[in-house]
Please model this.
Amino acid sequence: MRLHFAEIYYTTAGQRYFNVLINDIPVLTNFDKVAAAGGAFKAVVREFAANANAAGQLDIHFTQGTVSGVDGNPTVSAVEVLDQ
Model:
């Protein structure tokens, strides 16, 4: 699975941190899209191996980061599921 991100609100690193769990496994912790992409208004993709459950579902949770004093509201631009 691939998660696509682009920060289109904040312009500098350190302004938004969040966590991502797939099937209850942490895959991104205190993720900063601007820092990961090397600047605002740039896309960044993160790829993860994940298996669907018996019902064919992937469980993706986005939670606020633990860095105090910043906006931890998660955002994602797209979720891409690949059949491998």
Observations:
- The chain has a mean pLDDT of 91.
- The first strand starts at residue 2 and ends at 6.
- The longest helix spans residues 33-37.
